[in-house]
Specification:
By secondary structure, the chain is mostly helical. The chain is about 75% helix and about 0% strand. Helix 4 packs antiparallel against helix 5 and helix 4 packs parallel to helix 7. The chain is globular, with a radius of gyration of 18 Å.
Length: about 270
């Protein structure tokens, strides 16, 4: 495995660790204003990455003909449409089957369980980090294969964008744990561990890339659907609830534009 590829796979985890380290820098619970801004920013990054780095390449790969006929247009978009819906459905199923807590709530969802709130919150974050890891693995697989318009620089941009999104996520997990009475190191460790699934998921996709290459358009769209599910189900509701929702809107705009620029400039 090349050094660039290794770094690309680890960048998202480093973002989570950086965000989790906020427990060493802040004495009290994160302010509502900052949390809203960061949640909106994370949502913007994920939506932009899903569109520019995953869905558009999936549709370009699905184009089997340069004909302008309606039949050719339908065929070109179907892999992206099917993959996107499968990604949404997969996360919906996991949410239904796994006991977990959403960020900012105390009401458990999924199957009933005797797990602690800390464990259920960790499960929720792990579930939602999986599609991000898959997205990184898929874009690097596409860049390595040369079968897509995804460049290595573009894959790095996706990895960097997800890492930026993971900074507020790590903080949003570790800070409430610190406020609940956990030590700074324990809060940091649990927040950091929530991001370990990302390089693991990315590596699994890469190891299977030779077998999965024919289905790459579906996989790109699958990762996009899963990421959009996380935004709709987790990030936007929490960002829009209560006061200061305008800050989350501003954060969304900034995150979206940043990821869009990164993808275009580095792609």
């Amino acid at each position: 495995m090349s050094t660039t590829l290794t770094i690309g796979l680890l960048i998202p985890l480093l973002g989570t660790m950086l965000g989790s380290a906020f427990v060493f820098l802040m004495r009290s619970e994160m302010s509502v204003r900052l949390q809203k801004s960061l949640l909106g920013f994370a949502s913007g990054v994920m939506v932009a990455a899903s569109v520019w780095s995953l869905l558009i390449p999936a549709m370009e790969m699905g184009a089997t003909s340069r004909s302008s006929s309606s039949a050719a247009a339908w065929l070109s978009v179907m892999p992206a449409a099917i993959g996107f819906l499968l990604g949404m459905g997969f996360l919906l199923l996991i949410d239904e089957l796994t006991p977990h807590l959403h960020i900012g709530t105390d009401k458990p969802e999924g199957l009933r369980s005797h797990l602690s709130k800390t464990a259920m919150l960790a499960l929720a974050v792990t579930i939602h980090n999986l599609p991000e890891g898959m997205a990184v693995g898929v874009v690097f697989a596409g860049a390595e294969s040369g079968a897509t318009n995804i460049s290595l620089a573009s894959a790095i941009a996706v990895s960097l964008g997800i890492a930026i999104q993971n900074v507020p996520e790590g903080a949003i997990i570790s800070m409430p744990m610190r406020a609940a009475g956990n030590s700074r190191w324990r809060s940091f460790l649990i927040g950091s561990l929530s991001g370990v699934v990302e390089p693991v998921g990315a590596l699994a996709v890469l190891l299977l890339s030779s077998l999965l290459m024919p289905a790459l358009p579906y996989l790109l769209a699958f990762a996009a659907g899963a990421m959009i599910y996380v935004v709709i189900e987790e990030l936007i509701p929490e960002a829009s609830n209560g006061q200061h929702s305008n800050l989350s809107t501003i954060g969304f705009a900034l995150g979206f534009v940043l990821m869009m620029v990164l993808d275009v400039v580095m792609g």
